Amino acid sequence: MRCFPRPWSGAASRSLTCSWMHITLGQTGLLPLFEHAMFSSTMVGRGKPFPDLFLYAAKTMGFAPADCIVIEDSVAGTQAGIAAGMRVFSYYADLLTDRDGLAAAGGILFDDMRDLAKLVPIR
Fold it and tell me: Among 112, 66, 70, 65, which Cα is nearest to 89's?
């Protein structure tokens, strides 16, 4: 995310609780980028593959769904982002990832995080 020009707004929307997101984002060094906007499926009635979590995050941050992107590594998350009307980039890093399922769900596939900045349209 550091490769994107500023200003940009990011949110972490996960099926995990916010306390687990603190741990996992902290381990990756990404916590400072997202701790201001973490959204958990515990905040909405239905989790992924339903769009509720992504729609809630967008509304809370003041963005229209069409102006949001989703970076996902699961079929259910890709389905949720598509159902929310957002542009979804589906990451498959290894043989355990359901690449065919991600493609069928409608995400834009990529397998190298370094390529993400080239894929995402920056306005």
Answer: 70
